[in-house]
């Protein structure tokens, strides 16, 4: 019996210029281009084994066999590669998520980026990372950006062949991020559901698309100039605009909780008290992310502990792009997970 094996790690990313809404739900083509920062603190390791002995695909997350619904989602994703290569075998997919799942911390981004690279490795595909991102995109839109490190743009493109990610900047100029994990439970409204409802019902949505395009160009200019404060201001404004579209949907909804609002107020207060640049953003979840200078993180964390519990405050530096792991790396990840190193 022959097997083909691929193992990969991908880090999460946090969008600074948000992707919110699809123009094609099947191909995951976004309504607007986006830009993110890859983080080194949160990641997913995935092992893919194509095996003659298997009679169906199987998916295990954090050591637990997943539901038929989740298994089907993985099978559909693997089919993209099977159709591309002519591979006929089924696969066993094992993932270890070193990031809280479905809590607005981009676990799906790292998950599908790792799955895409592991699958491509198992099948010996010679694809550029940009090309691979067009596959990853069809599992999770934001996963396109987790194939790269630092600041990354996902270009909306004109169709499925050119809607892809590419790196913008290594973010090696004193960039950091603080995550205020006020609630790492599963969110009540999935991102895909929230996006679709917003696109269909929010009167603010057309203006979101128009202004997001301007924000993207402005933040790319600011990154090129290494103008941290301008990058932060654009990040905070763009994130708040995205959430304004959910509040204007019909019926309105929000990913914010009372704890989210308290965390936001804590950031504003600390920013004022310390007179340090620190800028908020939030994805489709209750947790607050704070873009800051890496050299300021210790001061900001100490001040934020006056408002939040220490275990709710997580820090990260910029992360690298996805990369291939060896079997020994996978074994170490399994040992780390079993020791409770994961953030879940």
From TrEMBL:
UniProtKB keywords: ATP-binding, Lipid biosynthesis, Lipid metabolism, Lyase, Nucleotide-binding
Gene Ontology molecular function, alphabetical: ATP binding; diphosphomevalonate decarboxylase activity
Enzyme class: lyase
Transmembrane feature ranges: none
Annotated Gene Ontology cellular component terms: cytosol
Enzyme Commission number: 4.1.1.33
InterPro entries: GHMP_kinase_C_sf (IPR036554), Mev_decarb (IPR005935), Mev_diP_decarb (IPR029765), MVD-like_N (IPR053859), Mvd1_C (IPR041431), Ribosomal_Su5_D2-typ_SF (IPR020568), Ribsml_uS5_D2-typ_fold_subgr (IPR014721)
Pfam families xref list: MDD_C, MVD-like_N
Domain of life: Bacteria
GO biological process, any: isopentenyl diphosphate biosynthetic process, mevalonate pathway
Family in the record: Belongs to the diphosphomevalonate decarboxylase family.
Protein's name in the database: diphosphomevalonate decarboxylase
Taxonomy of the source species: Bacteria, Bacillati, Bacillota, Bacilli, Lactobacillales
Gene it is expressed from: mvaD
């Amino acid at each position: 019996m022959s097997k083909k094996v691929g193992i990969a790690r991908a880090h999460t990313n946090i969008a600074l210029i948000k992707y919110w809404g699809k123009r094609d739900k099947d191909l995951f083509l976004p309504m607007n281009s986006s830009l993110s920062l890859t983080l080194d603190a949160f990641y997913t390791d995935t092992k893919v084994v194509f095996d003659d002995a298997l009679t169906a695909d199987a998916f295990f997350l954090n050591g637990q066999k997943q539901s038929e619904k989740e298994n089907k989602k993985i099978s559909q994703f693997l089919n993209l590669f099977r159709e591309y290569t002519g591979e006929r075998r089924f696969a066993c997919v094992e993932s270890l998520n070193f990031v809280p799942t479905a809590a607005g911390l981009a676990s799906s981004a790292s998950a599908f980026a790792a799955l895409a690279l592991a699958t491509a490795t198992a099948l010996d595909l010679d694809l550029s990372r940009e090309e691979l991102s067009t596959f990853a995109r069809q599992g999770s839109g934001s996963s396109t950006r987790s194939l790269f490190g630092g600041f990354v743009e996902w270009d909306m493109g004109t169709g499925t062949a050119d809607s892809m990610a590419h790196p913008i900047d290594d973010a090696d100029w004193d960039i950091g991020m603080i995550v205020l994990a006020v609630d790492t439970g599963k969110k009540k409204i999935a991102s895909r559901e929230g996006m679709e409802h917003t696109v269909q019902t929010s009167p603010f949505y057309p203006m979101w698309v128009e202004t997001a395009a301007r924000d993207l160009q402005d933040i790319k200019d600011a990154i090129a100039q290494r103008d941290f404060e301008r990058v932060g201001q654009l990040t905070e404004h763009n994130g708040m605009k995205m959430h304004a579209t959910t509040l204007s949907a019909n019926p309105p909804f929000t990913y914010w909780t009372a704890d989210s609002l308290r965390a936001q107020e804590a950031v504003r207060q600390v920013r004022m008290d310390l007179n340090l640049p620190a800028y908020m953003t939030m994805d489709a979840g209750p947790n607050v992310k704070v873009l800051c200078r890496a050299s300021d993180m210790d001061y900001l964390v100490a001040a934020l502990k006056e408002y939040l519990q220490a275990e709710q405050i997580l820090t990260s530096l910029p992360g690298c792009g996805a990369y291939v792991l060896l079997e020994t790396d996978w074994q170490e990840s399994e040992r780390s997970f079993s020791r409770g190193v994961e953030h879940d």
